[in-house]
């Protein structure tokens, strides 16, 4: 269940911590299932829980002053989110919505602080997680300012291959590929532009794709 987007430490069993098989007295560990389109939390809600995504896919986003939706990231199985509550966030600034049937393990802030005292290395794991996401957001901002639409989409595919790709011979496969609209939201482009770029790359035999996977035939050629 490991996702290369996260910093997994050798002495940290993230799944075991968030979703213990034997809960014992840990009554604050809650397993929850969300339907497609259901919000896990909304802006201004109390920020008092941390989530571990065991299956499914969620979108983290926010709303601008004029009500426009801004997609910040899309997370899949193995991701931790809602962690800003640990560093002083009192109310949610973002929303989290399920893009498909999604299952999570939920831990209260107080319980997480207790777990951090019990598990050496968990605090470092969470710090690295937040740092990694901050760097990713900075890189995305730079891309929006300095790169054209096609380059942003191609760079997104390369980053996706680096984070979630698995080598298959000389090729790289990414399972659970995103929709064209999701890619458009993350690259600040249009769905039509994403479709055009992906079809062009497919015609050049650099990639193949469907709703279930992306296969990069030539990662160097894509670069």
Please describe what this structure looks like.
This protein has 223 residues and is of the alpha+beta class. 36% of the residues lie in helices and 26% in strands. The chain is built from seven helices and twelve strands. It has helices spanning 14-18, 109-118, 122-146, 149-164, 180-187, 191-203, 219-222, and strands spanning 30-34, 39-41, 49-55, 57-63, 69-76, 80-81, 95-98, 102-108, 166-168, 171-175, 207-209, 213-216. The strands form three sheets. Strands 1-8-3-6 form a four-stranded antiparallel β-sheet. Helix 5 (180-187) crosses helix 6 (191-203). The longest helix is centred in the middle third of the chain and has 25 residues, at 122-146. The chain is globular and about 55 Å long. The two termini are 28 Å apart.
